[in-house]
C-alpha cells in the first residue's frame, strides 16, 4: 500500500523543502538570520500551509476511512467464501450420511458380510460423490475397503477409525488425499438384538478442482490443512511453503504476505477436538482493493492539490486586499523614520486597516507638529542656556568693574572737593567723573541683562504708563512714522518697576524707528491674554497663565531667523561701528525676565517686526507713586562704623568718606577679620558697612554673627550687583543697601538714614537711597539706535 504522506509532500534529499517552508513561516532564512520577507508573503505562506495541513488531515481521514472500508470488504468476502465452503461441506455430509445409513442397512441384512462393500462399490448406480467405502468389525478392524481414486492403506484407515467417533462425521487422510467421511454402526436383524455387528464408512475425497472452482467464485485462495501440512490448496506450490512458515508463527492467518501482495485470511477447524485437526484456510488478496484505493488516493491527491491552489489563490486575494494598505502603512512608517512627513497613505474604505491608516496619518501630523515645536523649544533652550552663560559672565564682569568704578568715581569726587572750577585739574577731574558715570550706566545695563539690578516693583496700570509716555514718544520718533496706541479698556494690573518698563518701551520705539528709514507705522497695544494649551503651542516660551500683553509692532524691514536668534545677546548690533552698544534689547530681556515676564518676537524680512511682552496679571490695586524726599546730610556724632570689604581700594575709599564725616571707622578685609576687630574693639559698634559677597563669609552671615554680639547694631550692605536667589528678605529685614559705584553723598546719606531712621521716614524705605544711586531717567534721553536693514 502506498504511503499517503509521500504521495502528498515528498521531501527532497535532506528535507530541504520542509526546512525552507519552516523558514518562510518563521521569517528566517536558512542561515538563521531574520529574513526580509514582506508581511503579505509570510501571511500567504502561513495560510497556505494551514490550508495544506487541514486538507492533508482531511484527506488522510478520508483515506483511512476508505482503507478500513476496504479491509472490512476483504474480510467480508473471505468470510463469505468460508460460509460457502461450510454450506457445501454440510450438503456433502448429509449425502454421505444417507449413503452410510443405506450401506449399514445392507450390511445388517447380510450380518456384516465383507462382500457388501465390494458389491456396493461395483454398483453402477453408485453416487460419484462417494469414492470411499469401508466395513469394520466391532473392534475397529477394517474387513473391507474400496476406493475409486488412489489407495488407502488399511493400517492407516484403522488408525483413522480409532480416532473417529461412532455415528459421527469426520476427516480421514490417506497420506495423499483427504476424505470427508460418515460412520454408521449396524446391528443384528432382531429388533431386540442390540449387539453391534460392525460399522460402515462412506467417504468423499476432496477434489482440488472443487476448491479451485470455489476460489474462482469467491475470488479467494482456499487451502485444507491436515495438522501442520497443507494437503489441498489453490495456492501455488512455491507459496505454500511460505504460508506454512507464516502459519507456524501465528495462530490464525489474519494477514499473510506473499512478496508485495497482502492477503486477509480466515482459518476454521473442521473437526474440533480431534488431533491432528483438519483446518480450512481462506485467503483474500487486497490487490484489487488496494488498486481501487490507489486510484482513490490519486483522486484525493488531485483534490487536495486543487484545494491548496484554490485556497492559496483565495488567500492571496485576501492578503493582497488587506496587506496592500498595510504595505502602504509600513511605507509611511519607514518614511516617518527618515523624517519624511509627506508620504502618501492609502486609506480607502472603513475597515480596521483604513481606520488604522487614518489614525496613523493623524498621529504623523501630530508628530510633525510636535517635532516642529520640539525644534523650537530646543532652539529656545539653547538660546536660554547661552543667554544664561553670557549673563553669568556679564554679572561677574560688572561686579569687578563696579569696584573699579567705585574707586575712580570716589577719588574724582575727592579731587573735585579740593579743586576750584578755575583750577587746571578741575576740568580733567570733571571728565573723569562723567566717564565713570557713563561706565556705571553701561554696567547697570549689563546688570539688567543678567537680572542682577535693583528693581522697585509696584502695582501699576500699563495703559496709564504708556499714555504718560505718549508725548515723549511722539517727540522721539520721526514725522514720517505714524504712531498709534490701542489700549484695552479692561486691562488688568501688573507688578513691575515703572522706570524700567518705560526704558523697555523706549528701546522698542527707538529700534522700530531705526527699522523704518523710509517711514511706516508704529503701533503699541495692550490686551488681557489667557495662555492655554493652544496658546502655549503657538508661543512655546510662554507658560500657561493669565497675562497682560504689551505689544510693539512696526512695518519695517524685519529680521531673518539668524538675526532673530541673536537680538537679545549683549553687544550684538547690526548698526555700524560706533553707532550703538548693542545693550538695548539685552536690557529689555533682563528687565522682563527679572519682572517674571516673557517676551516673544515675530518677524519676517520685508514684513516688519512684532515684540510681545507678557507680564503676569495681578489683582491688587494700583500703587500711587510718592514723590522722593531729599535727605539732608548730617555730620557724624562720633558713631563707630565697622567696614568689611575684600577690595582694599574700595575699603580705603569708604573709610576716607566716613572719617571725613566724623565717624570712627574700623576696617576689615574679610568677615573673620571683622569679627576679630569687633572683639578687639571692646566697645559698642553702631553700624556695619559690609560687602554682600566675600570669601568664606557672606555679608548677611557676618551681620547675623555681629547681631549676637551687638544687638543694636545697624547694617548697610554694598555690592556691585544684587543676587536674586531668594535673599531679598534678608536685606529688607536686616539692613539697607547702597549700590556700587556710589558717590560720597550716596554713601553718607545711606549711613545717616540707617543710624537715624525716624528723621526721614521709615527705616526700611530704600527708595530715596536707591534713587540717589541711579540717575533720573527723565533727564536721560535714550540713545537712538540706527540699525539697517533689521530692527534689533
Describe the structure.
The protein is α+β, with helices and mostly antiparallel strands and 792 residues long. Helix content is 49%, strand content 18%. The chain is built from 21 helices and 22 strands. The strands form 5 sheets. Strands 2-1-5-4-3 form a 5-stranded antiparallel beta sheet, sandwiched between helices. Strands 7-6-10-9-8 form a 5-stranded antiparallel beta sheet, with helices on both faces. Strands 12-14-15-17-16 form a 5-stranded mixed beta sheet. Helix 18 links the parallel strand 20 and strand 21 (714-719). The longest helix has 71 residues, at 39-109. The chain is rod-shaped. The model is unreliable at 1-35, 628-632, 724-733 and 760-792 (pLDDT under 50).
Question: Summary?
Answer:
The chain is an alpha+beta fold and 792 residues long. Helices cover 49% and strands 18% of the residues.
Helix content: 40-55%
- Rg computed from alpha carbons, rounded to a whole number of angstroms: 65 Å
Strand order of the largest sheet: 2-1-5-4-3
DSSP strand count: 22
In percent, how much strand structure appears in the residues? 15-25%
Low-confidence stretches: 1-35, 628-632, 724-733, 760-792
Largest sheet descriptor: 5 strands, antiparallel
- Briefly note the structural class of the backbone: alpha+beta
pLDDT averaged over residues = 75
N-C termini distance = 98 Å
> Which outline best applies?
rod-shaped
Quickly count the helices: 21
